[in-house]
Here is the input.
Amino acid sequence: MSVLDDLLLFTALASVAIIVLRRFAFISKFSVVVYVLATVLLIKMSALGYGGEAVYSSFTVNVLGQVLQWRFDALSWFFALITLVVALFTALFMSGAWGDKYRKEHSKEAYGLLQVALILNVLSMLVLLASGDLLSLFIGWELVSWASFMMMALNPDKVARKAAIKYIVYAMAGAMAILMAIAMTYNMTGSLDYVQVMQGMAQLNNSQIAVLVSLYAIGFGIKMGVIPFHLWQATAYAETPGAGAVFMGAISARMGLYALILVIVQIIGLTRVAAIEIPYTFLDMQNALAWVGALTTIIPTYIALKQNDARYLLAWHGVGQGGYMLLGVMIADSIGTAGGIMHVFNYATYQAALFMTVTAVIYRTGTSNFSKLGGLVTQMPLTFMVMVVSIIGLAGIPPMNGFVSKWLIYRALLLDGQPLLFVAAVIGTLGTILSVYKLVHNTFLGQLRLEHQDVREAPLSMLIPMLGLAIIIFATGVMPGVVLDWVAAAQIAIGIAPVEHNLGGIELVQGGLNMIWVTGVMFYGFAVGAIIFYFLGGKSKHIHQYDNYAGGHFLTSKVRYHYSNHFYAGLMHLIGGWYRNIFIKLEYALVSLVSFMSQLSENFYRSSQPAMLVAAIVMLALWYIMSADGSAPVLVQGLQGGMSK
Amino acid sequence: MTSVTELLAELLLMPFIAFVVGLAMVLMYRKIAARLQRRIGPPLLQPIYDIVKLYGKETQISHGLIHDIGLVMAVGGYVAAEIFLPVPGMDGIADKGGIITLSYVLMVPSLGLALGVGQCANPNGSIGISRALTAMLAYDIPFIIVVFGVATHYQSTSLVGMIEYQQIHQWGIFEMPLLAVAGLFALQGMMGKQPFEIYVAPAEIATGPMVEMSGKYMGGLFVMQTFQLYTAGVLYTSLFLGGGANWFEFLVKIFIVVAIPMSVALVFPRYRTEDMVRIMWKWPVMVALIGIAFVL
Here is the structure.
């Protein structure tokens, strides 16, 4: 038995155990132990992260001559590491005070189901990441979709249920696209095995590749929430119960990116994708996908700017940050791909931390609505600190880790000579800075509300995972080489030249990056700033927040003296008109069309002419058989081709 | 690799020089304003008197820890940024960063100030920050296009490398005149002077980020302003005017660069926030994009 067998079996058994034991109080501690052990098993495979050979599972299934197999390579290992670490932090976060409150507010069963959903998500993700051929990839894909659906559907709220249903409709549409693409791949190459498909791809012509790439990109893109499939994600993740949102927001949608890298970058190969010109435009297919990534950074980020609820704001940023990853991967040189893949790790750390801080605020105040918050920094200083560290990461400002991956993407765009994509990426970053300030200002800064005067710091069981993540965000920002090692191994696994790096960052002749120096200089600067502030000048006196300039008026607790509504009024005055809900209208039109068609056919079938319908179907079937003209249908041809190999 | 003494010299001297030069730039601004308004203007040491006065005040009002830390971040971020800006004879550490890193380090002071003002719990301050961040969105887009063009032209993101190239060949302003014009426009917004000074709102008491700032907090902002002027001048000089072969040439260049937006500022009234965004996204962006087309 290989370590991969151990890991998958262990997680499967743990899932069964958690399902059985879900109502007991010790389940929260138990699940933490489970994730720790699973992480240990994963670390046993850590040779993968430094260029080791792929680990195969000894378990295979034969279906109709196809061998279903499972394996871990460096890319799977990297994603699995993020998944398990996030799951571990999530389990820690929900094991203490948050879990107790959730139990009390809902039920033991509800809390147990949350734990079940978490482990099922982890298990299905591991199965997906371990897939060794297209069929097992599809199985894993479906498992992930339904596990996510379970997590989302745990919130009994009407909005949440609706979002979950919407998600599963999108996910099924995506799955159909993938299934079709897999069937076509099989047809054209005669195999589902990655290596054989990769060889078979060389024989295909450009139009076949174009169809395959579009279908795969649609299928995987739906999970990632890229434009124009971004509508389902934010509501679904934001409405997932607190700790669940931490996990889902941090990693769930990245499974789409994993599959996309695997199929489009590794198996099909970006040189083939780049060879396809899109008619009537100056773009090739690779550039088009990069533009999808760029638009995905811009549009959801500016939707996030308009949100008035912390959870929704973060969830929309989650959609937007996915765009950076796609953009980075689609640049296709070693630096850009490294940036895209590294961003998955960085994003997971700060997004998990951010959702945790917001969940902690909800835990203490009962709301995440910006109009009902403010001034909490005096009450929850550590939570505030974690949030500041994470938003610096999210906004991509040094010295946090988000800066490094974004720097790599910018640098690759510069080297590649892509001014418009570069500007698009920067517009996304600037929008992020605006909206994260809105997040931190409206929650933690400004005036403290009267009803929040007695709010205390988040409980220790929630603070520990939050602080742990904050440390990771900072440490991997100062020493990005730790993560870049794994990223470089993943790049080798997908057939791209690994990025040349050292512990502090990137070495390039034409201007590299050394984060150890950058951080050192920044902290030196802060030290000088602190000396100037604290040792020069008079001693400052802390005063009450009502002791404020109010144009001659006296401020009391009755006066609400806080600016949070319509925060970027000046900007919205200009760009407010650009929000036209085009995609919502498109989606609505599609829904109307489908419901109209289904009513039409229902009428036809039920009330009008059942006999006619049967006759029409028979006719169609006959026509199909006749038109095949003696030769076997296409699918069988493919099968024969596969067998003759 | 730089030796330890050089390293220490750079760490200590670069921010100090930036501060002194920045003070002189503040004085220059006041002198230009005075001459244009037919006044004599302040004496030579007036900026120093101002800082000493602000730091020495007896009443220093703090609105909480983040108010203090915000000020530390605002000044400290600029101190760090100055070390990443190469000056004649001192470019060892600057080589570790580069233009992209520098652009993002320059956002740290804004973030610090924003956090500090937020803690003051005064809506007028918060409005100022919301305007300041909007302004940043406005001027950073043309600025980043210019940076892209310049970096593509020199095939490098290292400021030190760019300066070397220019000193061997010719100044960037002659090779990329359109980008230089767009850069100057963006610089006007970056410096927070008229016509784009609504977010600073220095003339009003009750609006803008400074509403709760007094004593050494105001002094911190004053220090920040000196750094801001110096940074703008040096950055533009490094990108387009070939840096400086020696200190005299260097200083002349940066003072001229800063004097241009200052003179423009004093004859203009003020744009509203959304008008600033509109004008910044229109003209400099257009010019810079055309400029990039020439570079590529």
